[in-house]
Amino acid sequence: MDQRLKDYLVILIGCGQMGRALAEGLIDSAAIEPARLVCLDAAEKKAQALADDLNAREDIPEVELDESGQPFRRLRLYIVAVKPGDVRAVLESRSDSFTDEDTIVSVAAGVPISVIRRAAGPFPGVARAMPNTPALIGAGVTGVMGDGTIDMEAVNAVFEAVGRVVRIRHEAHFHAVTALSGSGPAYIFTAIEAMADGGVLMGLDRATAIELASGAIEGAARLVQAQDFVHTAELKDRVASPGGTTIAALAALEQHGFRHALIRAVEAAAVRSKQMTEDFESS
């Protein structure tokens, strides 16, 4: 068990794709014992299926017994993994049961801490997190931020079970986090598809082209992380020999606005995130 979670009961609200990824990561990594995980969902069969798969709980125990048989209430860490539009209703329906020993972590895009706080009431601590879909295979990256009152080490432990964690200092930066790492896998999937299309155009079969394209991107990303003291421009230049194939390809990318398109994609996603936040704050 991860010692940062030893005092907690983790309560997952929302057993969809991301909720399942987080639950499986917590159990598969042995971060918590199955009996310390509760799976809840508006679709009861979905929650039951996940709880059965992981041998987890399907309801929140009012009290538990300590080693001497005395009743006690564990600290509770709620992970709210529902759609952004459902966050307020989910929290309002449970607000009477929250205490100052509870922590609420929302993974919903665009829902600010102020809205979470109003829905949950004055007692629990609040945090935001923005994971991404590679968490499904334990390779996610998650931006996290708390309201200053909570145990961030416990929050970190939850998301480290499915990948890397980056602490965010200013909530306004969550728009950029959402746009860059939250939405980022979709940009890369599109790049892999396009690179593979190029390979097929040049005579490769589709499976081989996908394997080569995805492998190249995976390897390049790992190289950037392993040599974080080297600027990406220098890594690029090491591949681009004078008058060679790579510099010809890079010139074509520049001609067609590749760099500009990625910058504008991140900007567009961040602007949309900000619009969502403004809508939640005004409603």
Task: Give a quick summary of the entry.
By secondary structure, the chain is an alpha/beta fold. The protein has helices spanning 17-28, 44-54, 87-92, 113-120, 152-160, 174-182, 184-201, 206-226, 232-239, 245-255, 258-282, and strands at residues 8-13, 37-40, 64-65, 71-72, 75-80, 102-106, 125-130, 140-146, 163-167.
Subunit organisation of the chains: single chain
Using the CA coordinates, give the radius of gyration: 22 Å
Number of domains: 2
- At the fourth level of CATH, the homologous superfamily of the largest domain is NAD(P)-binding Rossmann-like Domain
Q: Please tally the β strands and state the result.
A: 9
Beta-strand residue percentage: 15-25%
Largest sheet: 7 strands, mixed
Ends apart, CA distance between termini = 41 Å
Can you describe what's shown?
With 283 residues, this protein is of the alpha/beta class. It folds into two domains: 3-174, Rossmann fold (3-Layer(aba) Sandwich); 184-267, ProC C-terminal domain-like (ProC C-terminal domain-like fold, Orthogonal Bundle), CATH 1.10.3730.10. 49% of the residues lie in helices and 15% in strands. It has helices at 17-28, 44-54, 87-92, 113-120, 152-160, 174-182, 184-201, 206-226, 232-239, 245-255, 258-282, and strands spanning 8-13, 37-40, 64-65, 71-72, 75-80, 102-106, 125-130, 140-146, 163-167. It has a seven-stranded mixed β-sheet with strand order 2-1-5-6-7-8-9. The longest helix is centred in the last third of the chain and has 25 residues, at 258-282. It is elongated, with a radius of gyration of 22 Å.
